[in-house]
Design a protein that fits this description.
Length: 74
């Protein structure tokens, strides 16, 4: 299992989801991706994308204007 971080700061919907999708395609099942964003919409968009595509949201964090979603690749 490897852990990677995706910087999606200053990107607006749908780009954080698209970048997350592209990154997950390069990863293996069980790997963990930390997605760091500034668009609050990702707090709904990425979990919805994960449900549709068989990935698991391990944690969501909010720190002022930064949103982090930790995803386990399914």
């Amino acid at each position: 299992m490897k852990k990677e971080t995706l910087n999606a700061k200053r990107l607006l919907c749908p780009l954080p989801v698209i970048r997350t999708q592209d990154k997950v395609k390069t990863m293996q099942t069980g790997d963990v991706l930390e997605v760091v964003c500034t668009d609050p919409g990702v707090m709904q968009d990425i979990p919805a994308w994960c449900r549709i595509n068989g990935h698991k949201v391990l944690e969501t964090l909010t720190d002022e204007m930064e949103y982090t979603i930790i995803v386990e690749v399914g």
